[in-house]
Amino acid sequence: MRVTEWAAACLVGTVVVACASAPPAAPPLVPSAEEHDAAPEEPPAVATVTSVDAPERSAPPSTKSYDEALSTPESLDVHDERVHLTDGQLTGPIRGVLTGCRVSSNAKVTIKTAVQYGRAIGVTVNVRFERPRSAKPPSRAAAKAEAKIAAKIIACADRNVRAVTWPPSSRRDSFTTEF
User: What DSSP line would sit under the chain, residue for residue?
Assistant: First the structure.
């Protein structure tokens, strides 16, 4: 049996994407005896792209800050029946975002997140280092080292939060989490 086309569906995130290779350049001029006696082939099925979830989830993650995401007014209606996410639904998925970010024990991380359609639409991460009250202010070199560590923690936490998915809701919800 000779295969002239190959098609497969590839699952990427929450969207099914169709993948197919090009047909051969030209059919053979003289069919073989097997092909001559065989019944005509059915035309190949047309590959389609279908969305498994909301189209908003197939878009790349937002790069907006928390304040930028909330600066756009959300239309509100007195008779709006859309569901708000509960505190547990909002904070549950974000619990492990600092895993792998190498956060020191004296670092306090605050993450402000705006969520809509199951994705983070705005994220702001702040890191501060707590010192004992009796400690002297850090030297210039220590302050520079802390700033470098804070930048790495912020980048890691921001990337991880934007990768999290929440239950889908067309309402914009926002929350602040401290670690």
Answer: ------EEEEEETTEEEEEEPPPPSS--SS--HHHHHSPPPPPPPPP--EESS-HHHHSPPP---HHHHHHSPPP--TT--PPPPPHHHHHGGGTTTTTTS---TTEEEEEEEEEETTEEEEEEEEEEE---TTSPPPPHHHHHHHHHHHHHHHHHHHHHHHH------SS-EEEEEE-
The pLDDT of residue 8: 32
Residue 2 falls inside a structural domain: no
Residues 67 and 144 in one domain: yes
For residue 100, the enclosing domain spans 60-178
Number of domains in the chain: 2
What is the pTM for the complete model shown? 0.63
* Residues 55-74, mean pLDDT to the nearest whole number: 75
pLDDT of 40 higher than 60? no
